[in-house]
Amino acid sequence: SQTIHQWPATLVQPVGSPLSLECTVEGTSNPNLYWYRQAAGRGLQLLFYSVGIGQISSEVPQNLSASRPQDRQFILSSKKLLLSDSGFYLCAWRRQGAFEAFFGQGTRLTVV
Amino acid sequence: DQQVKQNSPSLSVQEGRISILNCDYTNSMFDYFLWYKKYPAEGPTFLISISSIKDKNEDGRFTVFLNKSAKHLSLHIVPSQPGDSAVYFCAAENTDKLIFGTGTRLQVFP
Known about the structure:
Chain A is mainly beta.
């Protein structure tokens, strides 16, 4: 069976500090990978998606970047966090050609 | 540019009655639609989906209706149960992207 791991579950970081959130998927190969953010009072905003190693599509211009160094690893990063980066970050995967996406448990990021 | 919209941020329904959650979209190229349920501090879980070539899909207490001409879909839950209380997101698929709406918080009270 397939599983998705996302860590850490919670994170408190000062403004200006770097960020690295990691997501890994097990039990499947060549998945589509996604990073979403749920900000307070808002829906799930698609930040980045990837259809293969090294292939990253950015949906929203922002202070964040994503990388996919391995087939089942997706990393969300920032060099300098802003207060507005606070939110609930979710990683998801989907089989190529399938419609249903499966989500990790999320990371609650608070920038102080 | 919000391509998928859920105009009702919240909905309160009595147990046993029908819950109707609505969703509107702007992109006619979407070819698949999904509904997800989300509890606080957890990732969303898949509920039900519908292809753009259909107008109805039913799974137990959950039915999704699609009106392509109106670019509108809805989720019906009947009968509603207290355990259905959660935030519901509609989502639309276009090529490799899955775009979510803003969510509707459903509360089912006894």
